[in-house]
Amino acid sequence: MRYGRATLWGTVASCLVLLHFGVWPRDAWAGTVAIAVSPAATTTNLGNNFDVVIQVHAGAQAVDSATAYISFDPAVLHVTSVTAGAALDVLLQSSFNNLSGTMDYAAGTFGPAPTGTLALATVTFTSIAESPGTTLAFNATLPRQTDAARLGFSVLGHAEGATVTVENATNTPTQTPTNTNTPTNTPSSTATHTATPTETPTETPTEMPTETPTDTPTATPTDTPTDTLTQTPTNTSTPTRTPTTTPTDTLTATNTPTESATVTPSQTPSLSPTATGTWTPTQTCTITPSATSTPTDTPKACLTDVDGNGSPPDIATDVVYIARTLLGLSAVPPSFRVLDPGIPSDTTIAANINVMGMGLDIDGNGRIDVATDLVYLARQLLGLPPVPPSFRALDPSIPDDTTIGANIKALCP
């Protein structure tokens, strides 16, 4: 199935931004869009949960993909959950690590690119230690590079983090002043001093309830490899029969007249054939094929056509499915199935991906990496040099484009 070309290719390119597909690293942001944590300052009590929203302030600039890579102090805060926003509905990455203090999120859309202020994701933290001010900071360099893009080009201008203050909630009693009555002497026949006692209110401390964070289990999809049977073509020779001429024996009767006294000729009753009774065919009955069977090579299947639709591998579908599977997500985004219910199941697509095995290690470094191997595959399919020049600046040991291209070609001859 083919989607709208303008939206499709722009969105695909932007999705590739999120996975570093064909985007050169930048020294600084130069666009107009801002990504920020809201609220910019949060004060919470020790042990409490609180939410922050990662917002994309796009203004009039359309945005079809965004990534947010946040670093935090794991000795003070832990992430308990990440909830996707609705504006960019194709989830590409969502993970967090409370040991290293990182939260990684990436999403895009195959629909119209939204503008204005977008809620990219909501992150729920819990505080585990006091702090006068700990930061939630966006990472700006590869491989964890915060970005916003449109049609494959970055439109991000800057990113704004946040500060979190964690206090230890204690009950501090407040003293209530006590009114003391001073007797007043009033001239009269009998001076009477009347003291009116005032009760001193006693403060009853109120305990603040402490929310107990609830661990939300995260389902980890398990790829189940499926054995794929490969049919071996069998060459069948079709013999051609050559007609064989069968000679026919012809018996010739010879009339020998005999003169006698009578006029009745004596006809010899025996017929003498001119040919002997033994016949030898001039051609043998052996059937000889008229042509020699020559084996024909069956074209090798295109392994990168993971949805098996018979078309050349497509960045908008096949590469997306491979990338999501390698990231531990379901291969096909739900919105794809709404547009095309005929897409094979995630299990089938995962099995097709597993057939490629280490063939997806396109740069031959011993591991399959979405940020490099799939970048090379996507760029080759787009007709670009598979390895961006900036990649070689960071790692001169990357094989040359000819070698990379040959490895990709081997997956789909």
Q: Estimate the helix proportion, in percent.
A: 10-25%
Major sheet: size, sense and barrel closure? Answer: 8 strands, mixed
> What is the N-to-C succession of helices and strands?
HEEEEEEEEEEEEEEEHHHHHH
What distance separates the N and C termini? 22 Å
| Total count of strands | 15
Per the principal axes of the C-alpha atoms, what is the gross shape? elongated
**How large is the count of helical segments?**
7
Poorly predicted regions are 1-15, 17-28, 188-198, 202-207, 209-214, 216-282
Radius of gyration: 44 Å
Mean pLDDT: 75
Beta fraction: 15-25%
Question: Would you tell me the structural class of the helices and strands?
Answer: alpha+beta
General description of the model:
With 413 residues, this protein is of the alpha+beta class. It has helices at residues 5-18, 315-326, 334-339, 346-356, 373-381, 389-394, 401-411, and strands spanning 33-38, 41-45, 49-57, 65-71, 77-84, 90-97, 102-108, 117-127, 131-138, 140-141, 144-145, 147-150, 153-154, 156-160, 162-167. Strands 2, 4, 6, 7, 9, 12, 13 and 15 form an eight-stranded mixed sheet that branches. A five-stranded mixed sheet has the order 5-8-3-1-14, with no helix packed on it. It has a two-stranded antiparallel sheet with strand order 10-11. Helix 2 (315-326) packs antiparallel against helix 5. It is elongated. Residues 1-15, 17-28, 188-198, 202-207, 209-214 and 216-282 have low confidence and may be disordered.
